[in-house]
Amino acid sequence: MDQFAVRDGELVVGGLSLSELAAHAGGTPFFAYDRALLDARMRELRETLPARIELHYAIKANPHPELVRHLAARVDGLDVASGGELALALQAGCSAAAISFAGPGKSRDELEAAVAAGVLLNIESHREARELADIAARGGRAARVAVRVNPDFELKSSGMRMGGGAKPFGVDAEAVPALLGEINRMGLAFEGFHIFAGSQNLRADAIVEAQRLSFELAVRLAEHASAPVRVLNLGGGFGIPYFPGDSRLDLAPIADNLATLLDEADTRLPGASLALELGRYLVGEAGVYVCRVVDRKESRGQVFLVCDGGLNHHLAASGNFGQVIRKNFPVAIGNRMDAPRTLVANVVGPLCTPLDVLAERMTLADAQPGDLVVVFQSGAYGATASPQAFLGHPAPVEMLVG
Ligand SMILES: *Cc1c(COP(=O)(O)O)cnc(C)c1O
Predict the structure, then answer these.
(1) Most CB atoms closer than 10 Å: which of 79, 292, 337, 351?
(2) Are 328 and 373 in contact (CB under 8 A)?
(3) How confident is the model at residue 67 (pLDDT cuts 50, 70, 90)?
(4) Which of the listed residues 196, 283, 321, 384 should we mutate to test ligand 1's pocket, taking the one with most ligand atoms within 8 A of CB?
(5) Is the predicted pLDDT of residue 161 greater than 80, yes or no?
(6) Residue 271 has what pLDDT?
(7) How many CA atoms lie within 13 A of 177 on its CB side?
(8) Cα-Cα-Cα-Cα dihedral sign, residues 14, 15, 21, 25
(9) Is 148 a pocket residue for ligand 1 (Cβ < 6 Å)?
(10) Does 236 sit in the ligand 1 pocket, CB within 6 Å?
(11) Mean pLDDT, all residues of the chain
């Protein structure tokens, strides 16, 4: 993982060594997110993708308030998936006009809060349409809506499929014309479509194909809409490398394809803007998780480094967040970065469950109690996607640094 510098054998994040960061955090474990890396990633996207592509941040990937505030000032919009995230987005200073709200089980309270704030609602069912019409009728404020479409195709090579086949997300493409009729009759303010096929994809050709198919689907469905499409949200899903053999996503073909789609949109979806809502790709590589070795023990010929945090803080690194076959995240002994890797060890957390594994039989620097274990690629789906109450250990500190 070469996005971070090493100083005197210690990994440096946001200009501070891991031991300095541990002092700031008041100990371990902690997550640190590097501001400069977030900015570099935004810059890369802005420089590579066509200028007219709107870039949104999907808060779900990392809702740390300081990080959200930082990104809110740099992206074109925030995507939220709960009432809590909606409040966070508004507190981060994002204008309601630039917030969209997706999610398959929006409650009455959430829908009311969203209409009151004036954000765009990605409708995922007939019930949501009816509730929104009722809320608008009672409150006198028109609900801004887009239709989240469950596409009639699947994203190839996706780490986690979010569309195609039978899914709880969105409305099946073939049922969308009827829903559009209902939206029209109910007087909801239709603004566009949201089509998100899947997460963690490292293959540009698969993403290009999904974006092309999403565009064609939106053009077909637009014929049934009562108002022009103002926004076509093509979803997130850009992947980052985690495992040996993973290669970096090539943005160039995606940029070319988006430029073509923008050109076509001028005639086929006039007035529409194209948006991406990225989570993992924006924040994943900018973050590390750091815990401390509490014990080093041997069992039947294997070495175990037992740390003060594990799956309770970082479920994804333990392999229990969507992995089918467990693979090691990139892990290192963060205060011995210059030392030769001579120790084959299992890195485990403190929980009484065999699932609490951060690295299995990994070759590491020779580590002792007190040393710092660092898990890279931890800026997305880390603390937020972990069962922090499990076993009652303290929550990790999270810091935006640099
Ligand atoms: C999770 C999610 C995203 C972000 O996905 P990434 O794979 O992290 O880019 C975007 N949009 C919606 C609706 C989501 O649920």
Answers:
(1) 79
(2) no
(3) very high
(4) 196
(5) no
(6) 96
(7) 7
(8) negative
(9) no
(10) yes
(11) 96
Nearest to 198 by CA among 188, 189, 206: 206
Verify whether ligand 1 is closer than 6 Å to residue 63 (CB atom). Answer: no
What is the rounded CA–CA span in Å between residue 41 and residue 38?
5
Q: Is the N-terminal amide bond of 29 cis, ω within 30° of 0?
A: yes
pLDDT in tens, 258-316: 999 999 999 999 999 999 999 999 999 999 999 999 999 999 999 999 999 999 999 99
Distance 389 CA to ligand 1 centre (A): 25
Distance (angstroms) between ligand 1 centre and the Cα of 256 equals 22
For ligand 1, whether the C-beta of 170 sits within 6 Å is: no
pLDDT in tens, 347-362: 999 999 999 999 999 9
Q: Name the token pair of 271.
A: 């007035």
Instruction: Look up 291 and say whether it is catalytic.
Output: no
Atom of ligand 1 minimally distant from the CA of 277: 10
In this predicted structure, what is the pLDDT of residue 158?
66
What tens digit of pLDDT does each residue of 192-223 get?
Answer: 999 998 889 999 999 999 999 999 999 999 99
Whether the CB-CB separation of 189 and 142 falls below 8 Å is answered with: yes
Token pair 């371990």 is found at 28
**How far apart (Å, rounded) are the C-alpha atoms in residues 90 and 144?**
17
Domains along the chain?
5-32+284-401 (2.40.37.10), 63-278 (3.20.20.10)
3 state SS of 43: helix
Does the CA dihedral 339-343-348-352 come out positive or negative?
negative
Distance 230 CA to ligand 1 centre (A): 21
Mutational test site, ligand 1, from 148, 161, 199, max ligand atoms within 8 Å of CB:
199
Mutual angle of helices 35-48 and 251-268, in 10-degree steps: 50
* Placement of tokens 């299992």 in the chain: 346
pTM: predicted TM-score of the whole model, two decimal places: 0.96
Tokens linked to 144? 């801004």
